[in-house]
Amino acid sequence: MRLKNLPKNFTMMVTHLEVNHMNLEIMTTHQNAIQKDFVNSRSRGLAPIPLQTQTMSNDAKWLGFSAFVLGLALGAYLTLHLHYMSYDAVSRVAHAFFVLWSRDPHLGAIGFVWTPLSSILSLPIVVFYPLWPQLVREGIAGIPVSALFSGIGTYYLTKLLIRFNIPQPWRTGMVLIYMLNPMILLYSANGMTDGMLAACVIATYYGVFTYLQVGSLKALTSAAFWLVVGLGVRYEAIPFGIMVALGVAISQIIGRESWSVIRGTGILLLAPLTAGGALWLYFNWLIMKNPFYFLDGTYSNIAQTKLSGYEQYIRTHEMSHPINSLLYISHFTLFFWPLILGIAMGIFLLGRRGSDTFVPVVLGGLIGPLLLDFTLLLKGNLAPWDRYFIYYIPTGFVLVCYIAAKMAHIFPRLIKRPFLGWGLITLLLLSGSFGTYYALQTSQLGSPDGAIVRMALENKSMTSITPGSLALIRFMNHHPHMIVLTDDFTTGVPVVIQVNNPRQFIITSDYDYKSILLNPRGRASAFLVPQPTGAAGHLVDINRYYPTMWYGKVSWVHLIRQFNNVDGTSYRLYGIDSTAP
Prior knowledge:
Number of strands: 5
Strand order of the largest sheet: 2-1-3-5-4
Number of helices: 27
C-alpha cells in the first residue's frame, strides 16, 4: 500500500518545494530591489562596503581589546605607582561603595546629581572591598569601567573606518593614533565619565552611518542604545542625541525620503533616550521628592559652580558675553585642530551637487554639546576644565577620516597613490594628537589635566591626601566606636571611604540622616562641621541648619578637635551634649 502511494506523495512534495523556491526567489529579488533603491535614493555618502570587507571585524575586536588592556595598565601605573587619584572619579566609586558598605546600604545611595551608570558598573568590583580596600580608597574600581568603554570606543571606531573603506594598514594606524591621544588615553585609565561619553559618541556615529548606508534597522537601534548609555554617564548625551537626530532628518531630506520614514527614524532613534530621561526624572521625584533635583538640588552642578569661584572666574574674563563665550569654546578646537579642517571640508561637501548625507550627522553631533556648554558658560555655570571639550577629539577623528574616504571615493586616482593620500591623512591625525598634548600644556586650555599628563611623563608622584585628611583619618581610626554625622559631599572621598570603619559615619544618603541631624541626642556622638566658606561650607546641611555651630555658638555641643587642610577645608569635630534635642 505504501509503495503505491509513494510516487504520488513524492510528486506532491517536489511540487511544493518548487513553489517555495519560486516564492523565495521572488522575495529575495524584491528585497534586493528595495535595498538597491534605498542605497541609490537615500545614501549619498559612501557605497556599502564589499562583503569580504565585513569579515574583517576581527581587527576591531583585537584593537578594542588592546585599548581595554592599555587602559587597565595605565590606570594601574597612575594609581598604584604615581598615586594619582581623580576626585570626581573616586566620588563615583564612593557612591557605589555607599550602596553596598555604608551604615545604611541601599540602592538610593547611588546619588542623584550625576547620572549613575558608572557607579552602577563599579558595583561588582566594589563587592570585593573587604579583600582590597584600595579598590575604593584609591578609586581603582572605576578604572576597569573607563578601560572597558575605551575598548568599546576603539572597537566601533575600527568598524566605522571599515565602513569608510579605509585600507587595512592605514586604518590600523589611524585607530592607534586615536588610542594614544593624550586625552583619550588618560580618560581610558582614570575612571572618569568623559572618556565613556567619547565611546558612546563613536558608537552612535557607527550605528547612524550604517543605517544611512545600508538601511539596517539593527544599526539604528544600536545607535539609539548607545545614546541612552551616554545619558547614563553624561548629560551632554541629550543635546548630542537631539542634534544627531536632526542631522539624520536633514540627511534623509537630502536623500528625498518620505516623511513617514523620516518620522519613524527619529522616533526609533530618540525613543530610548526620551525614556531614559523620563526614568531619571521619575527616580529623582520618587527618592529626592524633586524631579529636577539633579538640576537645582543642593549639590547640583549649578549650585556647586555658583559657590566654587567658577562664576567669578567667568566674570573676571568677561566670558558671560556671547562673543567671548564663543571665542572661549572655539579655543578648545586646538585639542584636535584637524577638526577645523574637517568642518571646512564638510561644508564644502554639503555645497556640492548631490549633497552628502553623513556630514550633517557629525556636524549635528558636534553642535549639540557645544550649545549646552555655551548656555552654561553664559550663565556662569561651567567650570573652566579641559575635559568638558573632550568630544572634539572623537568627532574630529570621525569627520576627518570620513571626508578623507569620501575624497578617495570622489577622486579614485588618490587610491593609486596610497602613501601620498592615506599617508598625509595619517600624518594629519598624528599632528592632531601632538596638538592635544601641546594644548594641554597651556594655562588656558590645560586645566587640570595638563599637569597630570606632564607629571605622568616625568614619573612624578601625584599623591593628593592632605596632612589634615591624614590626621582626621588617624583620629577616627583610634575612635572606631564614635558615631559621627557628616556630609559626604565634602568628606566622602577624603575621609569616609578612607577610614577602617566607614559605618561609624552617618552620611547624607542614610534614610535617617535628616532626622539625626535635627535630633542627635543618643543617636550621634559628634558632628563634623566644615568651615562655612566656599562651596563646602555653604552647601552642607550642617551649616545650613546650624549656621553658628562652626563658631561654637550652639549651646549643646563642645569642641573636640579642629582639623586643618582636609582636602583644602578646615573642619571642627563637635561632641553632642546631653542637652541636645
